[in-house]
Write a structure and sequence with these properties.
The complex is a heterodimer of chains A (385) and B (249). By secondary structure, chain A is α+β, with helices and mostly antiparallel strands. Chain A has 3 domains: 8-120, Butyryl-Coa Dehydrogenase, subunit A, domain 1; 123-233, Butyryl-CoA Dehydrogenase, subunit A, domain 2; 236-379, Butyryl-CoA Dehydrogenase, subunit A, domain 3 (Up-down Bundle), CATH 1.20.140.10. Chain A is built from 10 helices and 10 strands. The N and C termini of chain A lie far apart (45 Å). Chain B is an alpha/beta fold. Chain B has one domain (2-219): HUPs (Rossmann fold). Helix content of chain B is 28%, strand content 27%. Chain B contains 6 helices and 13 strands. In chain B, α2 (69-78) packs across α5 and α3 packs across α4. Chain B is globular and about 70 Å long. The chains are: A alpha+beta (385), B alpha/beta (249). The A-B interface holds A 8-9, 11-13, 15-16, 19-20, 23, 48-51, 54, 58, 63-65, 69 and B 69-70, 73-74, 77, 187-194, 197.
């Protein structure tokens, strides 16, 4: 459908990435999901397509495109495989962007070119075993000991944290207490630093071709200059990164829903029961009509939020609404798509089974649906002190 | 070596064809247009030749209106150096060949690659007509093309076999699958799309070549009827169906 936010270049980007995803990612998705395997090869190929650092300038290895282009890329990858879309979203929004936005010239030159090429990936570590939605409750500590930060603590559910090509991690730490309030700072820790270890979390239900890990810091010493941005601005970095990350999750929701819807439509047109294609039965056609409508609404809201971001306007509330709405409709669409597939929808041979599992991530990652509702209800003035 | 690739804009292969204006026009509403697949094989070959022969350039040329600019940008994003759009509606093959020939006479090329035919009208006229007007050799359909100095070695198709040709440049080549394989086709990457922004797309006024063709009306072919399968041993049933249902014997 025509969309007023899109120009010809966006359309070309969509066609190109769709072709790439169908040719190169789709044939591998089933096996990578089954074997719970992160693919450095596909990461490298996404790098060669120019999908990493899409929105940062070419001088740092990026492409200099707008954030809507990146959102379209995510949609198209998620249309065939949420795992690869997850890797792309996290690596760009939480890996590359904070380094580009806040890094010193040295930090940018040191890391960005390999991160944009897909030779290496980066992680952002916020969640801890006892602090998820309540991120201010995190306790991983970085002590100032002269030339170094001494880091102690652990992080969990960290995407891209422990692959063979992970270069490092942007770590959210407590660096002190000011007026009774915790002071947060973000610190770059490279893989291989003494005292830093990582362990992959296995047996996930969804995004099985992504790497999810637990990170441990045990008297881990990193040079003072590894701080990202200034001391004490960790919360700001986190919130800003998460706003963009929410648009990413929203795009994955729209893309996943689009893929699920297309599979269901195609199945319904070909599956015959009671003498005709089941798409001719109103019970099925109404489901498909609702799916199509929900996707179109979610997509248009997402593009509006991107427009705000690309025009340097605030988009936090819009990001929360997009993240919430897209992830919820992804659930509804994937669920109905399984229903339309009937018994076949329960078999792994049909990709809809994977889509049904993968969508479950979206209501939890990058701020749960409940947290998004808190943000929106605060914005409309429901919460009084 | 200066290479020119002629690209045509055609409906995506999955398009459902319908007609408008009393069945005298193809209904373009909601249709996704793409580079004619035969032209894309040719364009890919041109890019390979450019890479193998440093200093070469690849230009693309299209006869059509601004609505075709997206497919021209795609050609630039894949790797063509510049593009020319002759600003007039493409009406028939002879008009298109004439328009391109006027440009080529003023701006000579060593090698001109077209598709063997477009996949909408399937005329298969442009490569031969263009070569004829320019007075140079042509091979179409062509499934093999190598350049050796100023000599082109070409492989054409004949019934049940292949033909080998050699011709001095310049030549016109009508490409199809085989001149490169499907796996060789290129997907524009983001860098290519960004670079395409600043590559020249020159809009050229049409010479006004007359078209000799008028569409009376289009007819869609009758849809294929459902296929009935008859067991190989059941000759009686087959004869019965052919005689009484299909009424062909």
């Amino acid at each position: 459908m025509k969309n007023p936010f899109l120009n010809n270049e966006h359309e070309l980007i969509r066609q190109s990435i769709r072709e790439f995803a169908e040719k190169e990612i789709a044939p591998l998705a089933y096996q990578l999901d089954r074997d719970e395997k992160f693919s450095p090869y596909l990461t490298k190929r996404m790098g060669e397509m120019g999908l990493f650092g899409m929105c940062i300038p070419q001088e740092y290895g990026g492409q200099g495109l707008d954030s809507l282009s990146f959102i379209i890329a995510l949609e198209e990858i998620a249309r065939v495989d949420s795992s690869q879309a997850g890797i792309l979203s996290v690596h760009n929004s939480l890996g590359i962007d904070p380094i580009f936005n806040l890094g010193t010239q040295e930090q940018k030159e040191k890391y960005l070119s390999d991160l944009c090429s897909g030779n290496q990936i980066w992680a952002f570590a916020l969640t801890e075993p006892n602090s998820g939605s309540d991120s201010r409750n995190s306790i991983t500590k970085a002590e100032d000991i002269g030339e170094y930060w001494k880091i102690n603590g652990s992080k969990t559910f960290i995407t891209n944290g422990n692959t063979s090509i992970t270069r490092g991690v942007t770590l959210q730490t407590v660096t002190g207490i000011n007026n009774g309030k915790k002071e947060f700072s973000t610190i770059i820790v490279e893989k291989g630093t003494k005292g830093f270890s990582a362990e992959t979390i296995h047996d996930k239900m969804m995004w099985r071709a992504t790497n999810t890990s637990q990170l441990y810091f045990n008297d881990c010493l990193v040079p003072k200059e590894n701080i990202l941005g200034s001391k004490g601005n960790g919360s700001k970095i986190m919130l800003k990164s998460l706003d963009s990350g929410k648009l990413g999750i929203s795009a994955i929701g729209v893309g996943l829903a689009q893929g699920a819807y297309e599979m269901a439509l195609n199945y319904a047109k070909n599956r015959k029961q009671f003498g005709k294609s089941i798409s001719n039965h109103q019970a099925i056609s109404f489901k498909l009509a609702d799916m199509h409508m929900k996707i179109e609404l979610a997509r248009t809201m997402l593009y509006k939020a991107c427009w705000l971001k690309d025009n340097n306007q605030r988009f936090s509330i819009e990001a929360a609404m997009c993240k919430l709405y897209s992830s919820e409709i992804a659930k509804e669409v994937a669920d109905e798509a399984v229903q339309i597939h009937g018994g076949y929808g329960l078999i792994k041979e049909y990709p809809i089974e994977r889509f049904y599992r993968d969508q479950r991530m979206l209501q939890i990652g990058e701020g749960t649906s409940e947290i998004q509702r808190i943000i929106i209800s605060k914005y409309i003035g429901c919460i009084t002190k | 070596m200066k290479i020119l690739v002629c690209i045509s804009s055609v409906p995506d292969t999955t398009t459902k064809i319908s007609f408008t204006n009393n069945s005298t026009e193809f209904d373009k509403s909601g249709v996704q247009f793409v580079i004619n697949p035969n032209d894309e094989f040719g364009l890919t070959k041109a890019l390979q030749l450019k890479e193998a022969n440093p200093g070469s350039t690849v230009s693309v040329i299209h006869v059509g209106s601004a609505t075709s600019d997206p497919i021209i940008r795609k050609a630039l994003a894949i790797g063509a150096d510049d593009a020319i759009r002759i600003n007039t509606e493409a009406v028939d093959a002879l008009q298109v060949a004439n328009e391109i020939s006027v440009y080529v006479k003023a701006n000579p090329f060593d090698l001109i690659i077209t598709g063997k035919e477009s996949i909408d009208h399937n005329g298969a006229i442009v490569p031969h007509a263009l070569a004829e007007i320019l007075g140079i050799p042509s091979v179409s359909p062509c499934i093999g093309l190598e350049i050796d100095g100023t000599l082109a070695k070409l492989t054409g198709i004949v019934d049940g076999g292949k033909e080998e040709f050699s011709a001095s440049l310049p030549v016109v080549v009508g490409g199809q699958k085989g001149i490169v394989e499907e796996r060789d086709l290129r997907i524009p990457n983001m860098r290519g799309i960004m670079q395409a922004r600043s590559k020249p797309l020159n809009i050229v006024t049409a010479s006004g070549s007359a078209s000799s063709q008028k569409i009376a009306n289009f007819d869609a072919p009758t849809p294929k009827a459902a296929c009935k399968m008859v067991d190989a041993n059941n000759m009686e049933e087959l004869v019965n169906l052919l005689q009484n249902e299909a009424k062909v014997i």
